[in-house]
From TrEMBL:
Residues making up the signal peptide according to the UniProt record: none
Domain called DNA-binding protein H-NS-like N-terminal: residue spans: 1-72
Name used for this protein in its record: DNA-binding protein H-NS-like N-terminal domain-containing protein
Organism superkingdom: Bacteria
Any one GO molecular-function label of the UniProt entry: protein dimerization activity
InterPro entries to which the protein is assigned, alphabetical: H-NS-like_N (IPR054180), Histone_HNS_N (IPR027454)
C-alpha cells in the first residue's frame, strides 16, 4: 500500500510510471479515478445524512420521555460518589 500511495502522491514518480501509457489510456485511468472520487464523496454525504437521522431519532426519544440535552450534560459532569 505504501508503494502504491507513494506512486500516486508523488508527481515525478507518477509521471515516470505513466510515460508509456497513451493519451487514451491515461484518460481511462483519469475517468476511473474520477468515478472513485465521486463514489467516496457520495458515501461521505450518505454517512452524514445517516448520522444526522440517527441523532434526530435519539432526540425524539429523549423528548418523548422528557429528557433534555442539558440533563444528560449535567449527569456526565456530576462527580460520582465513592462507596
Amino acid at each position: 500500500m505504501t508503494d502504491f500511495l507513494n506512486l500516486l502522491t508523488h508527481e515525478n514518480t507518477l509521471k515516470d510510471n505513466t510515460e508509456k501509457l497513451s493519451i487514451d489510456e491515461l484518460k481511462v485511468v483519469a475517468s476511473r479515478l474520477q468515478l472513485f472520487i465521486a463514489h467516496r464523496e457520495m458515501q461521505s454525504v450518505d454517512d452524514k445524512v445517516e448520522r444526522n437521522a440517527h441523532i434526530m431519532r435519539i432526540r425524539k426519544q429523549m423528548y418523548k420521555i422528557g429528557l433534555r440535552v442539558n440533563d444528560v450534560r449535567s449527569a456526565i459532569k456530576a462527580p460520582r460518589k465513592l462507596k
